[in-house]
């Protein structure tokens, strides 16, 4: 399906320096229609700078940033996007319903107010002044404002920070509904389970560069770690030095081992400790893959 449409957003060879610091150092990112792309990376990796370039808030020193094949500052491009940034400066005395109505009026084909409120789970907040809401409620209102214009592309910068579990799950459901409508989403998050649950594609940034890109499964396969847990008297520190063991630790009396050669390590564990019990072997999640990927440059530097 994707091939039939041009990319909705694109960074090509994007470079952005702040004084001598390279916030972005030649970043390529491509987003297709109906796709949720998760931008991951440790603090300072360049996620927000990438979003700022795509929004036209910051200009690249080299390379280019495009929305729908256009300069992101063009009004024709801006009318097709919705944005929820990490902080929002909204008038505290305005009621939520008024805010939604006003924001929707800037768009050519907005959603009906009730639909936006329903998607963001703020139906009961419409008459409340924005400034009187809790942090999590304000985040939901910001989400409603981002989607009320029926955008083709939604930028969500750490949208679920400060939300309780129920609100977070509702927002996940809303994101899925929007994707099903054909909306594209750029999501930055530090909650890896969020990327794991929602993203078709993940880009991992580190030190202003793309460290890795692919589906959640592809990223996992790249580091291909398996987690082994068991109850054993073996010394975790000694096991950590075995060949093909990436890491080993003792957590709550359980030995936990990460390895790319599960069969080999399981065999050695059983041979070395015949009393070993409660053996569990599980494919590593995105969290382990992410840690491994973002650690890689440091290891190379050290070599
Ligand atoms: N306006 C600015 N002036 C100077 N340096 C900046 C500016 N904006 C970002 N930086 C620097 O650029 C680098 C990338 O920052 P960026 O905000 O893009 O990272 P991030 O991946 O979004 O981090 P976080 O997860 O903490 O939000 C950081 O080293 C940051 O200090």
TrEMBL record:
Pfam family, one: ABC_tran
Native source organism of the sequence: Rhodanobacter glycinis
Annotated InterPro entries: AAA+_ATPase, ABC_transporter-like_ATP-bd, ABC_transporter-like_CS, ABC_transporter_ATP-binding, P-loop_NTPase
SUPFAM superfamilies in the record: P-loop containing nucleoside triphosphate hydrolases
GO molecular function: ATP binding; ATP hydrolysis activity
Gene3D superfamilies: P-loop containing nucleotide triphosphate hydrolases
Residue ranges of domain ABC transporter in the record: 9-232
Keyword check for Ribosomal protein: no
Residues making up the signal peptide according to the UniProt record: none
Stated name of the protein: ABC-2 type transport system ATP-binding protein
Keywords, sorted A to Z: ATP-binding, Nucleotide-binding, Transport
């Amino acid at each position: 399906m994707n091939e039939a449409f041009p990319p909705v957003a694109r960074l090509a060879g994007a470079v952005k320096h702040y004084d001598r610091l390279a916030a972005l150092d030649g970043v390529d990112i491509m987003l297709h229609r109906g796709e949720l792309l998760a931008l991951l990376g440790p603090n300072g990796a360049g996620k927000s700078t990438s979003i700022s370039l795509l929004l036209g808030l910051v200009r690249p020193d080299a390379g280019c940033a495009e929305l729908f094949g256009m300069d992101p500052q063009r009004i024709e491009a801006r009318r097709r996007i919705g944005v929820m940034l990490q902080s929002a400066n909204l008038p505290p005395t305005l009621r939520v319903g008024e805010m939604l109505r006003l924001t929707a009026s800037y768009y050519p084909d907005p959603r009906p107010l009730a639909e936006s409120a329903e998607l963001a789970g703020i139906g009961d907040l419409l008459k409340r002044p924005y400034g009187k809401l809790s942090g999590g409620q304000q985040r939901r209102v910001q989400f409603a404002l981002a989607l009320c214009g029926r955008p083709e592309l939604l930028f969500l910068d750490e949208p679920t920070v400060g939300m309780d579990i129920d609100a977070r799950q509702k927002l996940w459901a809303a994101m899925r509904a929007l994707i099903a409508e054909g909306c594209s989403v750029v999501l930055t998050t530090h909650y890896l389970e969020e990327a794991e649950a929602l993203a078709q594609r993940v880009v991992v940034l580190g030190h202003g560069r793309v460290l890795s890109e692919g589906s959640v499964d592809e990223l996992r396969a790249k580091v291909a770690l398996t987690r082994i847990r068991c109850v054993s008297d073996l010394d975790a520190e000694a096991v950590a030095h075995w060949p093909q063991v990436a890491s080993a630790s003792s957590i709550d009396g359980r030995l936990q081992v990460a390895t790319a050669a599960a069969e080999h390590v399981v065999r050695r564990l059983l041979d070395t400790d015949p009393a070993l019990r409660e053996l569990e072997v599980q494919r590593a999640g995105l969290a382990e893959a992410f840690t491994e990927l973002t650690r890689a440059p440091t290891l190379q530097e050290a070599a």
